[in-house]
Amino acid sequence: MNSEKVVDFLGQVALLLRLPSSSLRKIAAKVELRHYDAGDYVIRQGEKADGIYFIWKGNAEVFESVESEEASYPLKEYDYFGYGIGVSINEVSVVSLSKLTCLVLPQEYFNLLQPNFIWNADESPESLSIVEQTLRLEPIEVDIFRGYTVPGSPVFRQVFGGQFIGQALAAASKTVDCLKLAHSLHAYFIIAGDRNMPIVYHVHHLRDGKSFATRRVDATQKGVVVFSLVASFQKEEPGFEHQHAVMPLVPAPDVLLSMEDLRDIKLTDPRVPITYRNNEARSDFLPWPVEIRFCIPIEMARKYRSEPSLMYWFRIRGKLSDDAALHRCAIAYASDFLFMSISLNPHRKKGLKIMCLSLDHSMWFHRDCRADDWLLFVMESPSASRGRGFATGRMFNRKGELIVSLAQEGLVRKVAPPNRAPPSKL
């Protein structure tokens, strides 16, 4: 058997969609190929159960009892049957209706069906990076997952937008076969999420084709949809290749300062207002789970006008599991950091308070890459009007290959000063 064809087949079996791709490849190496003629018993009621059967080719029928001639229901390609852990005797019979080919996973390998979590079959959650822990969704029912804001996540007043994007894409990815990877997504932030509550992701199947699949994911809290995402997935295929975009000439990430280094410098820089330095020194500092190194030094404490653009290198802190879908989810998670804020640059001035909230977010994945290796995020804001800012972005790997293109629109408003009661004359 061709191992890639077996993995491709198993990746389309509903029972196996939530498994890590590494588990799927292990199962592909353990399954046995069995052939049956029309009318043969595949499994017989009362006999010893020996594994889980996946129908590769052909059709079969299930019978409730050996004596009964009435079939319960038919089975076709990609269907599966058999008995799992704890069951030793077949409780029904299955008879082939035509020439039938099955892949059989013997009982001694049933542990492969129970990985530790959806991205990695072996690691414990405590050993994972914060981003991978965040993307480690809990399957509740078919097409329903639960996500959490884990300790160490970025501290904002509401759920971080990148968390919504990454978790929703993770939920969608676990309902398509592992050989189909996300090539685009379009997301809408509807209501601010409560970071102290779980988020339930409902996945809707819009299309399942041979090369493409489309999913819509609705994120809910308290029964209300707070975020929605549509993602399209494609099986890899050869095609035309060109790249007109050129990566800007910037310093390598190894020679640049991290956000943590810049903060330490600011704390002792006499040019920075003492009130800012005192507030920063007193506050609890928690590094983001994404390491960022700015290509051009930015003034984090001063409010001044500047060009609506920004370039920085970033990578996920820690090492991610080797799953291509996970790395795309991690890039989606990281894509919302500082993206909309560049729309404010031309309008900054001392004393001005501005509210900035993401409204929608789009991404196109052009090439594979690792999210735990350095990527250059180049962004600019070509326009802001009518209370909305617009930003576009491109991500390059260190070789200069264009990995992702992005666009985002967000709400940018001046915060009105609070109404102050007139002083009492008494």
TrEMBL record:
Domain Cyclic nucleotide-binding: 15-82
Pathway note: Lipid metabolism; fatty acid metabolism
Gene3D superfamilies in UniProt: Acyl-CoA thioesterase, double hotdog domain, Jelly Rolls
Keyword Hydrolase tagged: yes
InterPro entries, sorted: ACOT8-like_C, Acyl-CoA_hotdog, Acyl_CoA_thio, cNMP-bd_CS, cNMP-bd_dom, cNMP-bd_dom_sf, HotDog_dom_sf, RmlC-like_jellyroll
Major localization class: other
Gene Ontology annotations for the cellular component aspect, listed alphabetically: peroxisomal matrix
One of the protein's GO biological processes: acyl-CoA metabolic process
Coiled-coil region list: none
Domain of life where this protein originates: Eukaryota
Enzymatic reactions: a fatty acyl-CoA + H2O = a fatty acid + CoA + H(+)
Location in or out of the cell: Peroxisome matrix
Protein name: acyl-CoA hydrolase
Organism expressing this protein natively: Spirodela intermedia (Intermediate duckweed)
Source organism phylogeny: Eukaryota, Viridiplantae, Streptophyta, Embryophyta, Tracheophyta
